[in-house]
Amino acid sequence: MNCNVPTDICFSFEGFSARGGKTDDHSDGWGIAFFEGKGCRLFIDAKPSVSSPIAEVVRCYPIHSTHVIAHIRKATQGEISLENCHPFRRELWGKYWVFAHNGDLPDFHPQSMGFYHAVGTTDSERAFCLILETLRQRFPGGQPNVKELYLALREITDLISLYGTFNYLLSEGEHFFAHCSTKLSYIVRQAPFAAAHLIDQDVTVDFQELTTSSDRVAVIATTPLTDNEVWTQIKEGELLIFQDGLPLKFT
């Protein structure tokens, strides 16, 4: 989720967490990260999200954030363990960076990633480390402007994508990057707000009762979370930046 004012993700989380062992077979762990100013709350668990006590805490605790990244794991590489749960978090340029990957990168074993090293054994964490190491070496003086950052990220993303399926979400709490390799969709909710009904749970929320006319929220998911709203499919190979609840695109 990316939005222009701090918002809770309780509604989307109901449908999201059900996919971790109830309505889908992604039951090899899960995690969620909330950016709050310079801070970042990170919750991960190797248990399926549908039965995780930590998921119950998140479900009952309406944390407000402008950037949220959540992931339900179906293991393709690496054992089912806490260190292999997404999202992954690292520091770069004095900011937390958070990354989650959906896909598989067979034979992706970069020889040297310099400063960053994977703690677990997933291709996903190795890809994240390579992204950050590339940015660190490319911009040693600090974070560049958003267009330079986008172009550098576009370059390393295209390189890693050669190894397989590389759908991912990435944020440092200011910008929200989404790359579609095979399947990724988004919706922007803004005035006039309407009711939304979850696909995975029989839950409906009327956002008009919970929002102001200036609120704007973008939700990005592998597959749509609701069945009565129009979701936009991101094109294969496309990298988007979301800011203040809107997708931006650099060419």
From TrEMBL:
Q: Taxonomically, which superkingdom?
A: Bacteria
The Glutamine amidotransferase type-2 domain extends over 1-245
What InterPro entries does this protein's entry cite? EgtC-like, GATase_2_dom, Ntn_hydrolases_N
Q: Where does the UniProt annotation place the signal sequence? A: none
Annotated Gene3D superfamilies: Glutamine Phosphoribosylpyrophosphate, subunit 1, domain 1 (3.60.20.10)
Which keywords does the record carry? Answer: Glutamine amidotransferase
Name of the featured protein: Class II glutamine amidotransferase
Organism of provenance: Plectonema radiosum NIES-515
- Lineage of the native species? Bacteria, Bacillati, Cyanobacteriota, Cyanophyceae, Oscillatoriophycideae
